[in-house]
Write a structure and sequence with these properties.
Blueprint lengths: L1 H12 L10 H10 L16 E4 L2 H10 L11 E3 L3 H13 L4 H26 L3 H13 L4 H5 L4 H23 L3 H14 L7 H12 L5 H6 L2 H16 L3 E3 L11 H20 L15 H25 L1 H17 L10 H24 L4 H42 L11 E7 L2 H4 L1 H8 L7 E7 L4 E5 L4 E6 L23 H6 L16 E3 L3 E9 L2 E9 L8 E7 L2 E4 L8 E4 L9
Parallel strand pairs: 4-5, 4-11
Antiparallel strand pairs: 1-2, 2-3, 6-7, 6-13, 7-10, 8-9, 9-10, 11-12
C-alpha cells in the first residue's frame, strides 16, 4: 500500500515538475553558483539558508547596493541553520545545475519517502487496518505538503518531516517492541531533522506525547527514556545560538528565544488560523488577504471551528490514548509554526498527528451514523464535509499552490525583465521610485545577474506600497515621498476615505515589506537618517513608529547621468520623468487595487 500511496501523492504534485525555479530558488541558485555582480549573496550549500547574519558592518553594503530596502534594520538577521537540506541543493547544482525539472524530481523523491514513512507509522499506531489505511490516504492527499513538494526552496520542510516520522517510529519500536537500536537511532534521526528545518523541534512534542499516553511502565521511567532526545534538542539549540543562527529585527519572523512575550502574543493570534488550515478550510494564509476590520471576524470563526472539532473528538480523547497522543503532538507542533505568518506550508509536522486524529474522527462519525438515528444525518454531514476537504479540496489546493507560486514568480520575472540593461546602467544607480513591495523588486538585479545581462552599479527603492505614493520635488537634489498609508503598514491597512475590497491578494504584499524590519520593536523617529554612499534618507513624519513621509537627498543633481529613474506601472518598470522643483506627482501601483 505504501508504494501505491506514494505514487498517488507524486502524481498529484506532478504538474510542478515543469514549474521551474521560482522566487527564493533564484537566490539559492545565486548563492551556490555565485554571480560576479553581487558577491554578497554567494555562500556554500551548507550556508545557503543564511540570508542575513545580523552584522551591521556586513548588512550595510547589501542595503547600499540595493539588495535590501533602505528601511532594513541595521542588525537584521535571517540566518537559518539547515546544512543537511543545503547539501541536497548542492547535489542538485553538482549533478544538474541547469535542469530544474530534475530538482523537482529530487523533491518528489522526498515526498514519496514521506508518504511511505507515514504509512508505516500509522500502521504501527493504528492496528485497525481500515483506520490506518484511511490515515495514510489522507496524509498522501493532504495539501499541507504541497508547497514543500512543489517548491524547490521549501524542500527543507519535507526532508524534516521524513526524519521526524522515522524518529517517532524508531522510538515506538524501541519502547513497544524492545528494539534497542531505536534508543540510538531516535536521536540520530532527530539531529537529521533539526539540521534540515527548525520545525523538526516538533519531534520532541510527539515524543513527550508518546511518553505520556502510549509508553508503558511508571511515569518516571517513561520520562527518563526521553533524556537522550531531550539532550539532543538542547545541544542543537545551544549550538544554533552560539553559531549566531536565528531571526532578529524582522517583522515577519519572531525568535521565541529572544522575544518570548511577542511570540506568545503571536501564538494566540495565529494558532486558531493554523488549526483551521490543518483541520478544515480555507488555508491559514487566507488571513493575509483580508482588510484589518475583517481580521477579528476571521479569527473568531477560526476559534469556533477549532472548538467544534474539539467537541467532536472529545469522546475519542476520553477513551483513546492514541487519540491523545495525536492531539497533543499536533497542538504542540503548531507552536513552532507561530514564529512567522500563518500558512499551510508550515503545518507538515502538525499534520502527522492531525491526520491521525481526523481519520479517527471520521471512523467514529461513520459509526454514529450507522448506529444511532437521532445523530445520523449530522454525523453523515460531518463525514461528508471532512471527505470534501481532505479528499476533494486538498488535491485541488496543491494544484492551486502550483498556480499561485507561478503567478508570484511571473510578477517577479516580468518586472526583472523590464529593468534597464544597456551599457550605461552598469555605471549608474537605478532608482525605483515606487513598487507594490520591495520584496518583489529586490529580486530584479539578482535575476538579471543570473541571466548574464548588465546590472546597475547600485539600486535603490524609494517607496513601497500597494496604494498611491505622492512624489514631491523639494529642490534640485531632493525628493520627498508620501505613501497614502505610509511605509510598513499593518497587513490589511486601507487608505483613509478610499473604498477598497474587503479581501484582496494585494494585502499580503503589505506583509512582505515587514520582512526587513520590525517597527514595533525598532520604530523610526522624526529626524532619523540613513546615510548611503551617495544620498541621505531622512524621516520627516512618523505614525506609530512607521515613516509616513521621507526625504531622499542625493549628493548629485537628480538629473545627473549617474542616476537612472524608473517607476512601477502595470507590472513593469518604465522611465520616470522627474517633476520640476516645487511640483509633485501621484503614482499608483495598479497591481490589484487601481482605485487607490
Amino acid at each position: 500500500m505504501e508504494l501505491y500511496l506514494a505514487v498517488l501523492a507524486v502524481a498529484i504534485c506532478a504538474p510542478s515538475l515543469w514549474l521551474g525555479l521560482q522566487v527564493d530558488d533564484h537566490v539559492h541558485r545565486a548563492a551556490i553558483l555565485g554571480v560576479d555582480a553581487f558577491p554578497e549573496v554567494e555562500r556554500s550549500a551548507l550556508e545557503m539558508f543564511s540570508f542575513v547574519n545580523g552584522n551591521p558592518d556586513e548588512n550595510f553594503p547589501a542595503v547600499d547596493a540595493g539588495l535590501w530596502p533602505w528601511w532594513s534594520a541595521p542588525d537584521l538577521r535571517l540566518n537559518l541553520w539547515r546544512p543537511l537540506t543545503g547539501l541536497t541543493h548542492g547535489l542538485d547544482y553538482l549533478l544538474w545545475p541547469d535542469a530544474p525539472f530534475m530538482m523537482h524530481v529530487h523533491s518528489m523523491a522526498w515526498l514519496a519517502l514521506g508518504v511511505v514513512a507515514a504509512t508505516g507509522f500509522y500502521r504501527r499506531l493504528l492496528p485497525n487496518p481500515v483506520l490506518a489505511g484511511l490515515a495514510a490516504l489522507l496524509f498522501a492527499l493532504d495539501d499541507v505538503h504541497g508547497w514543500a513538494s512543489i517548491w524547490v526552496a521549501n524542500r527543507n520542510a519535507m526532508i524534516a518531516a521524513v526524519f521526524a516520522i522515522l524518529a517517532i517510529s524508531s522510538y515506538d519500536r524501541w519502547r513497544s517492541d524492545g528494539w534497542r537500536p531505536g534508543a540510538v537511532w531516535t536521536p540520530v534521526l532527530m539531529v537529521c531533522g533539526l539540521l534540515s528545518n527548525e520545525g523538526a523541534v516538533s519531534i520532541g512534542a510527539y515524543l513527550l506525547a508518546y511518553a505520556l499516553f502510549l509508553d508503558r511502565g511508571p511515569l518516571r521511567r517513561r520520562l527518563l527514556a526521553l533524556v537522550p532526545a531531550a539532550a539532543t534538542g538542547i545541544v542543537w539549540w545551544l549550538t544554533y545560538k552560539l553559531l549566531g543562527h536565528g531571526a532578529a529585527g524582522s517583522g515577519v519572523y519572531i525568535d521565541p528565544g529572544t522575544s518570548p512575550l511577542a511570540f506568545a502574543a503571536a501564538a494566540i493570534d495565529r494558532v486558531p488560523s493554523l488549526l483551521r488550515g490543518l483541520l478544515a478550510w480555507p488555508p491559514a494564509e487566507i488571513n493575509l488577504m483580508f482588510v484589518r476590520s475583517m481580521q477579528p471576524v476571521v479569527w473568531w470563526l477560526s476559534v469556533a471551528l477549532a472548538s467544534l472539532f474539539a467537541l467532536a473528538v472529545w469522546a475519542r480523547l476520553r477513551t483513546s490514548n492514541t487519540a491523545r497522543f495525536f492531539a497533543l503532538g499536533m497542538v504542540l507542533s503548531l507552536l513552532p509554526a507561530c514564529a512567522t505568518f500563518p500558512a499551510n506550508r508550515l503545518l507538515l509536522m502538525a499534520s502527522i498527528g492531525g491526520i491521525g486524529l481526523i481519520a479517527q474522527l471520521m471512523i467514529d462519525l461513520w459509526s454514529i451514523a450507522r448506529e444511532t438515528s437521532c445523530w445520523r444525518w449530522p454525523a453523515r454531514g460531518a463525514v461528508a464535509f471532512l471527505l470534501l476537504v481532505h479528499v476533494g479540496i486538498a488535491p485541488l489546493s496543491i494544484w492551486g499552490a502550483v498556480i499561485n507560486i507561478r503567478a508570484i514568480g511571473s510578477i517577479i520575472e516580468q518586472a526583472a525583465d523590464s529593468l534597464p540593461r544597456d551599457e550605461q546602467v552598469a555605471d549608474q544607480r537605478l532608482v525605483i521610485v515606487n513598487t507594490p513591495t520591495a520584496f518583489v523588486s529586490s529580486f530584479g538585479p539578482v535575476l538579471q545577474a543570473l541571466k548574464g545581462v548588465r546590472v546597475p552599479a547600485r539600486c535603490l527603492i524609494l517607496g513601497s506600497s500597494i496604494f498611491s505614493i505622492t512624489v514631491e520635488r523639494v529642490d534640485e537634489h531632493t525628493l520627498s515621498l508620501h505613501p497614502l498609508v505610509g511605509y510598513l503598514p499593518p497587513v490589511g491597512t486601507p487608505p483613509p476615505g478610499v473604498s477598497v475590497p474587503k479581501a484582496s491578494p494585494a494585502y499580503a504584499f503589505q506583509m512582505l515589506d515587514h520582512l526587513f524590519r520590525d517597527v514595533e520593536s525598532d520604530p523610526f523617529e522624526v529626524g532619523d537618517r540613513i546615510e548611503l554612499t551617495d544620498l541621505t534618507i531622512e524621516i520627516l513624519t512618523v505614525e506609530e513608529g512607521r515613516p509616513m513621509a521621507v526625504s531622499f537627498r542625493f549628493a548629485q543633481l537628480l538629473e545627473d547621468p549617474s542616476l537612472r529613474w524608473v517607476r512601477w506601472l502595470d507590472g513593469v518598470y518604465v522611465l520616470f520623468d522627474l517633476p520640476a522643483v516645487g511640483e509633485s506627482v501621484v503614482l499608483k501601483s495598479r497591481i490589484v487595487l487601481p482605485s487607490a
